[in-house]
Amino acid sequence: MEMNSLIFECSNMKNGEKFPVEHTGRGRDISPEFIIQNLSSYAKTLAIILEDIKHPVFKDFTHWLIFNIPAREKIDGDIPGGKILSCLGNARQGIGYGLYKYAGPKPPKGRQHLYRFTMYALDSEIDLTGLPTKKRFMKMAKGHIIQQGSIVGKYE
């Protein structure tokens, strides 16, 4: 089965544009809403990773990891913190700048960074025991990702 791109929109932000303040560490620091347009019928779960792709020290610095979201065409914004989210079908959040929660952009004042949301559609849940880091998640997800897509936003 050939993997096609996952197309999704992020509330109040178009690809390549400025990150809305409410979704940053200088605003309400809440996760945006996601609308998925071409989700495969084979998708069982979704995962989202937010990374600072212009971090001067850490390559693709992880801000947020959430996985095992039951496959759906809309993910509401303002996802609460916590390791396991019963409100979202027992989705799990991992370790990043946001420790088991969303943590939006907050670069040093006067420095513009680029941030990327990558969404993955998977054919199964990922049973990640121990520390749920991006690296460990990606290793476990290998072979289960059937679609992926990304949106980039900038913020300073």
From TrEMBL:
InterPro entries linked: PEBP, PEBP-like_sf, YbhB_YbcL/LppC-like
CDD domains on file: PEBP_bact_arch
Protein name stated in the entry: YbhB/YbcL family Raf kinase inhibitor-like protein
Pfam families (alphabetical): PBP (PF01161)
